[in-house]
Amino acid sequence: MTALRTYYYRVLMPHGGVKTGFYRLAVERDFSVQLRLEQELDATVISLWRLPRAMTATYETLRQLFQREISAEDLAGFLRDMGVMLRAGVPALDALRTVISEGQTSNSKGIARVARQMHKDLDAGISVSDAFARRPDVFPETVRNMMAIGDQSGNLDRMLLESAEHTERVLNIRRDIRTALIYPVFVFATIIAVAVFWITYVIPTLGDLFDQLNADMPAFTVSLIAFSEWVVDRLLMVVLVLAALTVGGIWLVRNHDPTRYAIHTIGHRLPVTRVLITSSGMAAMTEHLAILVRSGLDIVTSLDILTRTTNDLYYRRRLMQVRQAVTRGEGVASSMRAAGGFPAMTVRMIAVGEESGSLDEQLSHLSAEYRKRLSVVIASLSEIIKPAIILVAGGLFFVLVLALLIPIYDLIRQAMQIGGA
């Protein structure tokens, strides 16, 4: 699997000056980067240093902070505009100049920057597909491969338009997933905020009141008050530890494959998340595979690209098994059945597509079906999650209220006894 790597370089320019900078490229060997740099800059590489993984992550974070990322909406718009202009007979250089001028007068400054770089490439005699291939951090691998096919077959305009439609469909799937997560995230965030308020303010205040009134407190209440006071006394340390755990957890989820695989596997087994992950994952994978097969790539190459572009490690490991089996001459459907983890309907329809020679059509039908299922799941997700939210919130506040009501009840009882006497 070819990884996107970051390099720090020093090169000797033709005029005698030394230029330094960072360069990002998906390569297997460092020598390929040296050749690419010397070709692009017309210079001689003095030194080339590949950044370690940790430094690459730091560089990526800083780059994202200070350089505006290109959104999927802007990318889809760029591909569609280029496809429409090329289909109308506009030369690629003129089409890029149009994108640059429009980007300067709109909010698509990132697209204008990329179009300017690609314009320089094409002006230097580089092909359109190579200009796309040089920017793996901007254009997904699916799009880059479609551009290569379009360049070779003379159907670049059609590939651009299909890439735009593909990007928009994938974007809609991601939007649906984000929409599904808004409600539970908001509710759980509210529960946590209320619990923090009780622990840091309400419970210590009531604890002081109980001490002043000599209330008889059960052991559970004493422990809860002691824990609350401990948190308040060490609030800064608690915040720093929680922040470190949060950052560490995010890093593990993004960079530590065993942790990611464990999370994805658990997600595929829990009742609610299984439905959401399966619908969204199969919609994205069948969409990707359909567009690759329809563009003319062989099934082994298509599966290889799909494996690299799939973020779900649960599916990625199974796709690797499928690709290996297909390479040995087995069918896609039988390989999926042997790997396990794929819905039975998906396997059956792919088998029909293989037998009838309509694999791309069956994959498109599957993608549309899973997008519909995802929409239904999202529409009913709040009703599905409500019982879990009620149980969590009710259990938390039942414990808090019960721990505090017992001493209050004891104070009321003592007051009534004193009043009766």
UniProtKB/TrEMBL annotation:
Alphabetically ordered keywords of this record: Cell membrane, Membrane, Transmembrane, Transmembrane helix
Pfam families registered for this protein in UniProt: T2SSF (PF00482)
InterPro entries with a match to the protein in the record: GspF/PilC, T2SS_GspF_dom, T2SS_GspF_sf
Signal peptide (residue range): none
Record-annotated Type II secretion system protein GspF domain positions: 78-204, 286-407
Record field: transmembrane: 181-203, 235-253, 388-409
Topology of the protein relative to the lipid bilayer: Multi-pass membrane protein
Localization, UniProt: Cell membrane
Family: Belongs to the GSP F family.
PANTHER family found in the cross-reference section: GENERAL SECRETION PATHWAY PROTEIN (PTHR30012), TYPE II SECRETION SYSTEM PROTEIN F-RELATED (PTHR30012:SF0)
Name assigned to this protein: Type II secretion system F family protein
Biological source species: Vreelandella gomseomensis
